Amino acid sequence: MHELPLVMDVLALALKAAPDGARVTAVELSVGALRDAEGPWLERYFRMLARGTAAEGAALRVTRPEARLRCLSCGALFEAAARPRGPAALARALAAALARRAPEGPACPECGRRDCAVEGGLEFSLDRIEVEDRR
Ligand SMILES: [Zn+2]
After folding, report:
1. Concatenated DSSP letters for 31-46?
2. Cα separation of 93 and 98, whole Å?
């Protein structure tokens, strides 16, 4: 459900990048592990919405940067493993753990403290659009 409006935006941008008569052949996205969006749903919606447009049949490549945390005590930057529970579950667990410094929350691998801030994993970017001009 959350994926649909994201995919609509991505497709609109991709189609805008293709001149008249050209076809969009691939679209590359970065979707942070903390974003509540599942790769298979992004692909499914993309295929569905692209049907009948210049992007029909285009490949959607999605990379998922891991959640990155910054230790507020020593400044170390580290990754929090996202899967297998999925981005929504991780985002909730992380937010809850960070809010109350829960013992099960992420600990800094350098100093072991649990005062961390989310530094990455929330990105959503359209990195690349491949267009084939057959005119
Ligand atoms: Zn630390």
Report:
1. E-TTSS--HHHHHHHH
2. 8
Residue 2 identity (one-letter amino acid): H
Distance of CA 77 to the CA centre of its chain: 19
> Could you identify the residue written with the tokens 């809010």?
99
Q: How far, in Å, is the centroid of ligand 1 from the Cα of 65?
A: 21
Compute the distance from residue 91 Cα to the ligand 1 centre, in Å: 21
- Tens-place pLDDT, residues 23-77: 999 999 999 888 878 889 999 999 999 999 999 999 999 998 888 889 999 999 9
What would the two tokens of residue 76 be?
């170390």
pTM: 0.76
Residue 85 has pLDDT above 60, yes or no: no
Burial of 35 (0-12, 13-18, 19+ CB in 10 A): buried
